[in-house]
Amino acid sequence: MNTLKFKTNIQCNGCLTKVTPHLNQLEAIKDWEVDLKSLNRVLTVRTATNEAQEQVIDKLKAIGFFAREI
Questions:
Q1: If pLDDT is split at 50, 70 and 90, which confidence band does 33 have?
Q2: Percent of the chain's residues with pLDDT above 70
C-alpha cells in the first residue's frame, strides 16, 4: 500500500463534508484523512496504486480545492 501526502486548502469540517463523497468515490483510494490541526492541512491518502495522485488532485480541483503533493 502506498501513502501519499498533499498540502491542501481544506480548512474545516464543512470543507471535509464537501470533499468526503468525492474522495470516497475514487476506487484507487483505500482510506484518507485530513489533519486540520496542521498549518498545511495535510491530506494523507492510502492507496494500492500510484495513479491515485493525479485523481486526488483533479477531483479536489473540480470541487474548488487544491492539493499539492508533499
A1: very high
A2: 100
Q: How far apart are CA 46 and CA 32, in angstroms?
A: 6
- Given a contact cutoff of 8 angstroms between Cβ atoms, the answer to whether 67 and 23 are in contact is no
For residue 23, what is its C-alpha cell?
A: 474522495
- Show Cβ contacts of residue 56 under 8 Å, excluding neighbours closer than 6 positions: 4, 6, 23, 26, 29, 43, 45, 67
SS (H, E, C) 18-64: HHHHHHHCCCCEEEEEEECCCCCCEEEEEECCCCHHHHHHHHHHHCC
Phi, psi of 27 (to 5 degrees): -65, -25
